[in-house]
Amino acid sequence: ATTARGLIARYREWLPVAPDGPVITLGEGSTPLVEAVALSELLGCSVFVKVEGANPTGSFKDRGMTVAVSISAAEGAQAVVCASTGNTSASAAAYASRAGMLPIVLLPAGRISTGKLAQAIVHGGKVVQVDGNFDDCLDLARRLADSYPVALVNSVNDNRLEGQKTAAFEVVDDLGDAPDLHVMPVGNAGNISAYWRGYRQYAEAGRATRTPRMWGFQAAGAAPLVLGHRVLQPDTVASAIRIGNPASAHLAREARDDSGGLIDSVTDDQILDAQALLASREGIFVEPASAAGVAGLLKKHAAGELDPGQQVVVTVTGHGLKDIDTALTRWTPLQAEVVAAELESVAAVCGLRG
Ligand code: F0G
Predict the structure, then answer these.
(1) Which end of the chain has fewer CB atoms < 10 Å from its terminal CB, N or C?
(2) Locate the Tryptophan synthase beta chain-like PALP domain: which residues (predicted)?
């Protein structure tokens, strides 16, 4: 028996994977749903955090990638391509290398965190730094896949959303039903669409008695779904969601409207404050973009727009180790002073008294 079975093994009957088709897995999925004690007290709700940084490459992208790459393998693909703000490319590179395919990744030059760039490189990706933003990269990736024999594994490939919907299944399987409210960051808008699909399918099949309201949060400098028009120069510290023209905008609006939910924005300061709160109070280190949902919850609570007593699940999408540069500019760096290797000196620096 193997412990790392992966989400295709767990949810195969719900996925468009052939019964005897190849499965490219790293044991993704089945991530922790952690009770957030401090947040619950602060918000007057019962809050759970779905920790997607616990996936093999450190983000929720692995859910979609195991399905997209497995199906591409069944179709005989030799290469995959994606545009990315960093996490999709890290995941695509890992799964494609495992499948013996060449991963081609198009990245906005100079706008990817170092950790994510390293992931694409070590997995043997053909890393192309494009002089443009994510939206330019996605346009190029689509055209490359149209004109050459490479499989597109961005979330415009519906197999990605199919894999990502399993996170909603897991929430229901863990809680026994859907929560009142599900909250998450929104960038290219694939993930909120995938969760909504998952919740709907489980409710239709009688696995849940209801669906949650979906609340999505974009960064204020990259909030096309809030503004109602594309943003030509998206700008935010949360580089993962620095996207001005979301590919799945129509599906995200559907999730928002059909669930009775909303899509709003949060400032960079609100995002970084939420990141700090998660790290210092809940023990959960996430990258900045991943904290947008928590930032949104705090914003709505402060505005008196979060009814107390609800059961709330908030997805944190990627691990904090993905982007340590941003974290280290915000937190106090290591103290400059080096302490002598003796007990009293160390105790004194720590403010300890015998
Ligand atoms: N959080 C993180 C950490 C992400 O990397 C992304 C998207 C999102 C949230 C938003 O999810 O796009 O489905 O709305 N990252 C993509 C990438 C764009 O290339 O890695 P979404």
Answers:
(1) N
(2) 24-318
